[in-house]
Amino acid sequence: MIDDFIWRGLLGGLGVVLIAGPLGCFIAWRRMAYFGDALAHSALMGVALGIIMGINLTVGIAATSMMLALLLVALQYQRQLATDTLLGIMAHSGLALGLVAISFFENLRVDLLSYLFGDVLAVTQNDLYWIYGGGLIALGALLLIWKPLLAITIHEELARAEGVPVLAVRLTFVILIAIVIAVAMKVIGILLITSLLIIPAATARWFSKTPEQMALLAVLIGALAVFFGLFGSLKWDTPSGPSVVVAALGLFVLGLTLSKGLQAYGKSAH
Questions:
Q1: How far apart are CA 243 and CA 235, in angstroms?
Q2: What is the pLDDT of residue 15?
Q3: In this structure, how many other beta carbons lie within 10 angstroms of the beta carbon of residue 11?
Q4: What per-residue confidence (pLDDT) applies to 213?
Q5: pLDDT averaged over the chain?
Q6: pLDDT of residue 101 exceeding 60
Q7: How many angstroms separate the CA atoms of 116 and 80, rounded?
Q8: From the CB of residue 4, how many other CB atoms can be counted at a distance below 10 Å?
Q9: Which listed residue, 9, 22, 60, 113, has the most CB atoms within 10 A of its CB?
Q10: With helix as H, strand as E and coil as C, how does 43-77 read?
Q11: Quick one: pLDDT band at residue 108, thresholds 50, 70, 90?
């Protein structure tokens, strides 16, 4: 008989990849992996905010991530610093500020490793409510902006000329990234969440002909990574969050090999 904590971990991981898959496709298409990293690293300040204000940590992380996402979008319009420099400053400064703020609470025991690298086997029933509640809201919002966001991704100036509210769509998109980071923190950790957004999407790209196919396939690959990663974590007593990422990497390598093999076969057939 499978223990309850294993079922909760599996359900939590599947809930995360349900939204991380399609959202990760846009992050890959728009080359925003570093943006996601900066936002995720800064999310530790949300943990400190939650502790200081005595509120649910997921709420604190979501609020902080949303504010930082909007700030990053606004700062990208300035011309004094290159975007990658700005993101690097935000990422590492946010992580450092969060660690320093938490260190002031001497009497508070905080498992920093679970926040940094995740612990899918420690997912509670309450965590599942947050994961599926936040995930379904984010997925619904993504479906609403799917076509305009796709238009902006393909050609932003043309989309603007056709009347697409570019800024509103961009702001909605970065807020969705913030929500996913908040709900996924317990499962995969702030240092690894971007990998679960990017690796399944990158693997799916080789076998997809349409954006919709890529999004669905990214969800499937992410789900397999969660399943194999959780199984490996239980079997070899390895950290669950990193194990999921290693499984995703294994599927990426397998996908790359299959893709190259199919290309070689196609050329030889002709």
A1: 11
A2: 94
A3: 18
A4: 96
A5: 89
A6: yes
A7: 31
A8: 9
A9: 9
A10: CHHHHHHHHHHCCCHHHHHHHHHHHHHHHHHHHCC
A11: low
